[in-house]
Design goal:
Structural class: alpha/beta
Shape: globular
Strand order of the largest sheet: 3-4-2-1-5-6-7-8
Radius of gyration: 22 Å
Largest sheet: 8 strands, mixed
Number of strands: 16
Length: about 425
């Protein structure tokens, strides 16, 4: 059995790497004979041709967005992807025949993987969302292409737990709605995505709510990760507050956000905490590097002697252990939150999309979320003090709910197998 995993982002995003690892391990338990191939936006030359036993191949997204450094060449390659694949799909629709003669070899190799697949599984995550602007619209169309292609090839498509939306404009929403119309089934990470799909008229029996696959990522590295922390010579006897942040807002709003975070961290440092700013995503080739935002915040701190800025690119399995060694995490990166929470470390979450609210609500800790656009020092201070006051109750909630969530996440693959078998009859 050949399974093609699509929509994979970058293994240099520690959250994506956790999703890939967790879902592969889970799927192999119920489909032990399957061979896995995964499309990726990473350069195979830099990152290798396999991930935990799954073969890696470049995606259309890689060629359109990351195969060239010059913006003009990226633009031309994006047009090339859409033109070539439109011709291929149109020819197939008219003749019922598949011909890769219309395609450059780099595209035909991708199409071959779709043709050979028995099952196509778009990996979990937040790829089916976008913000305003032409570039974001092109991105959402590229993601949609990876749904249209297997549909035309009459493949079984089962979407692993995703967040759907938000969208920057009505065209983006319409395009993803069209792209998802004929999938076999879709798992979503939160109720808001479920309700959106229902409002689109998708059949209720096709939609399933399931936890993020990142809950299954458990490399057991808490002790090993202590070696990372020790070399930073943290003050002994102080509690540890970890921080993950990212660039997200327009320039002035981002500047204000970083100032508010720095002011809050100075307040926390006076409360007998050491601060550790942790880069969750270090993907320079994709122009996403959390170290830049972390550095901006660190430079604004008045109390730098109680703060550490981690600049190394820590591998996913070790960074999970780093989060488990914290006392509290202030987390903007959603999977940093999941990695801490599964280690029973309380999180004060910063939400920039509804996925964060949805996952915190699943764990019955939705009151410990701050919307990025509402964020200021006083709100953070109020939520943080509430968390500290209720810390034991918070941990008890996690100990009650996390095992249930992990069990539900494991069951996703079993449900997927049953859906596939039922659809294949």
């Amino acid at each position: 059995m050949n399974i093609l995993l699509t929509h994979a982002a970058s293994i240099n995003n520690k959250g994506d790497a956790g999703i890939f690892s967790g879902m592969l391990a889970s799927l192999r338990k119920v489909l032990p004979e399957a061979d896995f191939t995964m499309t990726t936006i990473d350069s195979l030359e830099k990152n290798g041709g396999e991930f935990e036993g799954a073969k890696l191949v470049h995606s259309f997204f890689y060629y359109a967005v990351f195969s060239h450094k010059k913006v003009s060449l990226r633009f031309l390659e994006t047009i090339n992807v859409f033109v070539c694949m439109s011709l291929y799909l149109s020819f197939y629709s008219i003749t019922g025949k598949m011909t890769k003669k219309l395609l450059p070899r780099r595209f035909s190799l991708i199409v071959e993987e779709y043709e050979q697949a028995d099952l196509v599984i778009p990996v979990g995550g937040g790829q089916l969302s976008a913000r305003r602007g032409f570039k974001q619209t092109a991105v959402i169309m590229l993601h949609a292409l990876e749904l249209f292609l297997p549909q035309r090839l009459k493949k079984t498509i089962i979407v692993y737990p995703q967040s759907i939306g938000p969208f920057g404009n009505s065209f983006q929403e319409w395009f993803i709605r069209k792209a998802l119309k004929n999938v076999t089934a879709i798992f979503v990470r939160e109720e808001r995505s479920f309700e959106l799909l229902q409002s689109w008229g998708m059949q209720k029996e096709k939609i399933h709510v399931a936890p993020d696959a990142g809950f299954l990522f458990n490399p057991g590295t808490k002790e090993e990760a202590k070696k990372v922390l020790i070399k930073y010579d943290l003050p002994k006897g102080k509690r540890l507050l970890g921080v993950t942040v990212r660039e997200w807002l327009p320039a002035q709003e981002q500047e204000d956000f970083e100032t508010n975070i720095a002011n809050f961290l100075d307040f926390v440092a006076d409360k007998d905490f050491s601060i550790i700013i942790i880069p969750q995503v270090v993907a320079e080739e994709h122009a996403v590097d959390d170290r830049m935002t972390g550095k901006n915040i660190f430079n604004k701190l008045k109390n730098k002697e109680n703060a550490i800025l981690i600049t190394e690119n820590i591998e996913p399995k070790i960074i999970k252990g780093v989060y488990e060694n914290l006392d509290v995490l202030l987390g903007m990166r959603m999977h940093s939150n999941i990695y801490a929470l599964t280690g029973f470390v309380p999180v004060l979450a910063i939400a920039y999309e509804h996925k964060t609210n949805g996952i915190m609500e699943q764990l019955n800790i939705g009151e410990y979320v701050v919307n990025v656009k509402d964020l200021n020092k006083n709100i953070l201070k109020e939520k943080f003090e509430s968390l500290l006051y209720n810390r034991e109750q918070y941990i008890e909630r996690l100990k009650s709910r996390i095992p249930e969530i992990i069990n539900e996440a494991e069951n996703t693959s079993l449900k997927l197998k049953l859906i596939y078998e039922g659809h294949s009859k």
